[in-house]
Amino acid sequence: MTLKNKEIDSRLVAILLGITSTLSCASEYIAPPMVNIPQGKFMMGSNSGDASSKPMHEVSVESFQMGKYPVTVAEFRKFIEDTGFEIASDCKDKLDRNWLSSPRDIGTARWDKNRYLKSEYQPVNCMNYREAQAYADWIAGKTGVPYRLATEQEFEYAMKANTTSRYFWGDDLSMTQACEYGNFADQSGEYFPNEQFGASYVGFVGYANCDDGEPYLSIVGLYRPNPFGLYDMTGNISQIIGSCYYEGYAKRSIREMDLDQCEYISHRGTSWHFPPQPHADRGRFKKEGWSPGGLMGFRLAADGHRKQVHDSTIKFEMALAEAQAKRLSNRVDIPKAPQKVQLVAVEDSLYKLRWQPVNDPRVIGYEVYQSKSPYSYMLSGYYKEHYKKIKDVDSNVDTINLQLDADEASFLLVTKVKGLTSLPSETAIIRQEKQLKIPGRLDMQESTQLENVRLVYRKATKDKPELYYMSGFNHLLKQPTLSARFNVNVATSGWYTLHYKGTSSQNGVFFKVWQGNRLAGEVEFNEDVDDTSSNRHRVYLVAGESPLQITVMREGFDYWALGWITFTPLES
């Protein structure tokens, strides 16, 4: 840590010797480390994605201070000890194979008793607006500095820090750099919940193509700061804002802007549970009535600039640095997965499975997994639900023989070190591509290629048949095109009635049907219409063998599913 002047340096010596008279004051509260943010202008919002972030517009911001870190458990504990402020034990920290509970569920945890709490130097979580505001008022009264929650304009300006890229560290479209700058859903975030709960990001929100070393909430300041010197502005904990949430920037009523009247407040900066999101991303939370979430914290702001640094701040940052160093020295790195996995036919039903060994002195071997069904490689969720282990091999082995009776199978490998394995490798597949006939039905598991999407499997029950369906979760500003491709043979050129089984949280255009590069039709969803039997959709198809593609592109938040599609000749 760099100390900027002799005055601070002398106080640090006093603290180390334990003789400064300000220690009694420091024991009552911790003055938060703050960063002076210059005044400036920036483009706020986005012209694409979720409607709540539109339109992009210029905003001017006066100089202010922003907390260097989110408020930590250690800081918040001083507030509780001093005031006896009552906080309910209704925070939601539940984790299972389906991840987290909904905002309307009632939890049993709280800020000092929850499954994420491992250090006093983590961001305090399980927060709501009332508690964050109460803390800001208390620390302002203790220090004489008018601390408050940041406005949305200030937060986005401070997060972007005069950058114009997708993230403050660059566009990073492949998400390989994000783990240097924040704690996100990543490789550790996929591996440890896999092993502990059977939870997986595969086919859900996805995860960054890197490893930040933390599966859940982490100590603040472990990653690189943004250009303004602020840590954890995105990732780790989602942060409560001192602004009302309103839909979009174009029209804002007095009620929507009045904190005494509005129903929802904003929160910014994604948490450890999501991959990086563009900095215009917004969230909302009920100011009153919703139980606090285990992903929710806050940081402070204050008007103007200050140069003074309080003794308690120096002592806090010293203790934080020690906690950071201890965590980094004890953190476990998961090994890399085997690369260049290939399945090569030798003769008849004999195959060779080959891979590139992992260059890691910890490696003690590899595990080989085979699919439980022909569709395993397309399915969402924890890979061990869809694959079974068939072989353990030594670390010096990079090829094995496989005798296969089936003509459709897929294989994964994982690297073994003491006490850990890697995430699974890329899939090695043998599959016979089928040609589907139209008129007829397209089942999603018969797709020859899925892009940016996975399948979900529903077992048969007494009243429902077995079903594979394509499913997607869109998080606000992300809007990738998702697609499924089929090999089809259309019997006759002409108009066909299209029925489908699917659902969405948005009405309007749901998916498009393409025959080759020709748009055959657009299909809508309406929650009041049963499109398994309605006759409102029709497409024109040309006779012959050709690829048929289904594409889905959603703007804003959406959770959708698509099971099957049928094509019936339209009677003339």
Task: Please give the CATH architecture of the largest domain.
Answer: Alpha-Beta Complex
How would you classify the helix and strand content by structural class? alpha+beta
Assign the CATH superfamily of the largest domain: paralog of FGE (formylglycine-generating enzyme)
The N- and C-terminal alpha carbons lie at a distance of 79 Å
Low-pLDDT residue intervals, each spanning 5 or more residues: 1-26
Number of domains: 4
Q: Specify Rg, calculated over alpha carbons.
A: 27 Å
Determine the mean pLDDT. 91
Per DSSP, what share of the residues sits in E-state strands of 2 or more residues? 25-35%
Q: From the 3D structure, determine the CATH topology of the largest domain.
A: paralog of FGE (formylglycine-generating enzyme)
**Could you give a short account of the major beta sheet?**
6 strands, mixed
Q: Helix amount, in percent?
A: 10-25%
Number of beta strands: 30
What is the CATH level 1 assignment of the largest domain? Alpha Beta
Question: What is the count of helical runs?
Answer: 8
**Shape, per Cα inertia axes:** globular
